[in-house]
Amino acid sequence: MDVEAWLTASFDEVIEVDDLTSSAAASFARFVDRHAAELAAVVALRRGGAGELVELTFRTGRPQQSVVPIRRTERIGVRFSGGDSMPFVYVLRSDFPDTAHQNLTAEGSPRAICIDDRGWAEARLTWTPAELVQRILAWFRRAAEGALHDARQPVDPLMFGTGYNIIMSRALIDNANTQDLVAVPDDTGTLMRVIPLSQLEGRTLALPLTVAAYRVPPAQMVRLSFAPGNLGSLADLLTARGIDLFADLRTRLAEWLNDARTNAARINSCLAVVVEMPITSPDGTQQGTDFRAFVAAEKVGDIAVALGIAHKVESKDQGGAAGFVTALTAGAVDEAALIAMAVLPVEVHATFDRDLATRLAGRTIPDARKAVIVGGGAIGAHVAPCLAREGRFLWTVIDDDVLLPHNLARHVGFGGDVARRKSELLAGALASILDDEDSVATAITAQVGVEGQQNDDVDAALDGADIIVDASASLLAERFLSDHKSKARRFSIFFSPAGDAAVLLAEPIDRSVTLRDLEAQYLRHVVREEALSGHLETPVRTFAYTGACRAITNLIPESRVMALSGLVAEGLGRAADTDEGIIRIWSLGTEGQVRSFSYPAEDVRRFDVDGWQVSLDAGLRSRIAAMRDECLPNETGGILLGVVDIPARKIHLADAAKAPADSIGSPTGFVRGTDGVQQLIDRSMAETQGQLRYVGEWHSHPPLVGVMPSVTDLSQINWLATIFDMDTLPGLMLIAGEAELAVVFMRRSEASSPLAERSVR
After folding, report:
1. Cis link prior to 185 (omega < 30° from 0)?
2. Total structural domains in the chain?
3. Least C-beta-crowded within 10 Å: which of 62, 86, 529, 757?
């Protein structure tokens, strides 16, 4: 480029300092003369259509060995355009090297260095002439040292914005040839949303638009130095990157002209050339994508004429249903006409689809697993949208409830949604987040877990799921989902009764530990961990939202629901990306402090005895073994606590107590005492909302004895069967040996006899 010609064309008037109308330009010129003579000297002051320019010679401070060819003294121009804009620094040398951190300039302009990554609204708060001089000097020094790009800085965009933006979906970008499009402007005229013409409602003002989309291969993309200003220079830019724009347009436009009647709207629309350009960091790694559109004001038909493939006609009688007809013989490209067709660079914002959501969440692989969430109440209505905004899951929502006025205190619904089904409300919200064809969420209005009820839609959704999330806060629903024949992995999420904690139960991917098992393990931690004391305590204050029985809700502020839901969503997403099962608890303090507790899912062994199933996890087995070993050579024992489901005939052993202080143990026998036993049972039931209860006894056998019940044991199991028969439960005894455990079972009947199932520890 010719720097002198540019100076003459852009700043044709040479003036004196007193003639400067920009106070910032005058301050800068005077500062250089009076205080920065050792660094710079004013060569000329200029004025033109682009503003006022202070032309300087500037000592760059370049070291002996420079990474880039910077001279010891460079000629620069600092442009002050007035108003709310940052001073713009040109290097007035036609062969100045292309480096990182340069501003994009128009074709025919010198290179411009980027001395400040702040916006002018922020930078102007501290701007002084001295700071400007120091920033210019710092840029040259860093460039010479090869240190322009700090690893903590964002990568340079490929092109700086013009203030105009369009929003369109990736689907439209990728399939732009298949439908007529329009750009609907906002009230400022600088932002337009591109939609199919078929979706345009009423008589909305819109610009007909035809999109031609291209992708630049990463290997051929480098930072752009100048912004193309016309179709000719745009074609040159793309040619250097492996794309023959004119050849491709000739093919595309010829197809439309061959059926001009059908494509009349497209032929008479404006052309937007959309280019997807990879952004690479200085180390060569790809750091994202820059979408740009170059919008021409001329009609597509006029561009076809300049490309030599069409003629313009004045009437339909001449065969021009669209005002243009195909040339019988393709002519030469009119390069002068194409150069005269200006293009406006416009930023393109792809709509929020699954891919974009995934990348913004810091992940790399979109998550299109099928997820069924049961429960559209407070926790479900917050956690599911949070995960959807991270690009996670294809959703089905199951709930039979309706949104009532009091639900608005902690729900994503609004006043106009009252009386709507929660399933439909949440599914609609999830479907509206991502602009993807597969983002439609399904709503199923049904109750889950009620005995005798069957719903084919529910069963089909669960059978087809990859992930099932119980957000119902219902034991019936959780246990129904745990037992369902679906092969999907299960999760359960819920708030504590007081709303000051949230819980996540995540099965391992092989479902060797189920939600039922995790429920029992979670309750053991609640009664065992001092830090979790009161975790499931019923709140003192509640609110009756009607006079009906059970029409009571807890007093939990939305701010707390949102905070805990965010923690649960992060934990659920993280757990879903691993194979291991886990129990996580988040407790929120009154000052906003968060305590987190995490426990692995313990391996479970199941004993099937007399139509009942008894489950025993590795954590409890280890606890019993440790208590046995601690008391050797004497026998020991105590009570068992567990979770009972009588209709399902399942008992999950959760905890075993140490021998009471008044117990008697010897190498040949054990008599359990009673000191503190009732208090322990009462406390455990209180701490777990009555879910953990007394379910039987355990005791140990000495080495070499085995685990089969002795005569004394048989007498005790008979007594237990009598006691538990009043609760329609079997008598249960666990015997711990040196390397085995035995579960001994007995029910009262006319011909009752004990049944035992043994297992290695």
Report:
1. no
2. 4
3. 529
| Domain membership of residue 66 as a residue range | 3-145
Alpha-carbon radius of gyration of the chain: 38
CA nearest to 597, candidates 529, 527, 661:
529
Q: Are 663 and 636 in contact (CB under 8 A)?
A: yes
Same domain, 169 and 272: yes
**Residues 635 and 573 both lie in one domain:** no
| Per-residue model confidence (pLDDT) at position 747 | 67
Mean pLDDT for 76-102 is 86
Which tokens go with 169?
């979906």
- Tens digits of per-residue pLDDT, 727-761? 778 888 899 998 888 888 876 554 455 665 655 55
- What pLDDT does residue 1 have? 66
Q: Which residue shows structure tokens 């609640």?
A: 526
Check pLDDT > 60 for residue 687: yes
- Dihedral of alpha carbons 477, 478, 483, 484, sign: positive
Give domain status of residue 645, yes or no.
yes
pLDDT for 757 equals 60
The pair phi, psi for residue 701, each rounded to 5°, is -115, 150
In a domain, residue 359? The reply is no
The four Cα atoms 618, 469, 492, 614 give a dihedral, to 10 degrees, of -40
Q: Decide which of 324, 351, 378 is a domain's last residue.
A: 351
Q: Looking at the structure, tell me whether residues 544 and 635 fall in a common domain.
A: no
Asked whether residue 104 is assigned to any structural domain, the reply reads: yes
- DSSP-derived 3-state class of residue 199: helix
Asked whether 327 and 258 are in contact (CB, 8 A), the reply is no
Given a contact cutoff of 8 angstroms between Cβ atoms, the answer to whether 53 and 43 are in contact is no
Maximum separation of any 2 CA atoms in the chain, in Å: 118
Q: How confident is the model at residue 219 (pLDDT cuts 50, 70, 90)?
A: low
Confidence at residue 760, expressed as pLDDT on a 0 to 100 scale: 54
pLDDT score for 674 = 92
φ/ψ bin of 658: left (φ > 0), alpha (ψ from -120 to 50), beta (otherwise): beta
SS (H, E, C) 614-644: EEEEHHHHHHHHHHHHHHCCCCCEEEEEEEE
Q: Is residue 152 part of a domain?
A: no
Distance CA 696, CA 743 (A): 10
How many C-beta atoms lie closer than 10 Å to residue 318's C-beta?
Answer: 11
Q: How many CA atoms lie within 13 A of 183 on its CB side?
A: 26
* Residues 221 and 243 sit within 8 Å (Cβ to Cβ): no
Per this entry, what is the length of the chain? Answer: 761
604 - beta bridge partners? 617
* 137, two tokens: 């000097």
pLDDT at 361: 92
Q: State whether 594 and 725 are in the same domain.
A: no
Q: Which of 145, 180, 208 represents a domain boundary (last residue)?
A: 145
* 554 and 617 within one domain: no
The number of angstroms, rounded, from the C-alpha of 476 to the middle of its chain's C-alpha atoms is: 31
Residues with Cβ < 8 Å from 247, sequence gap 6 or more?
A: none
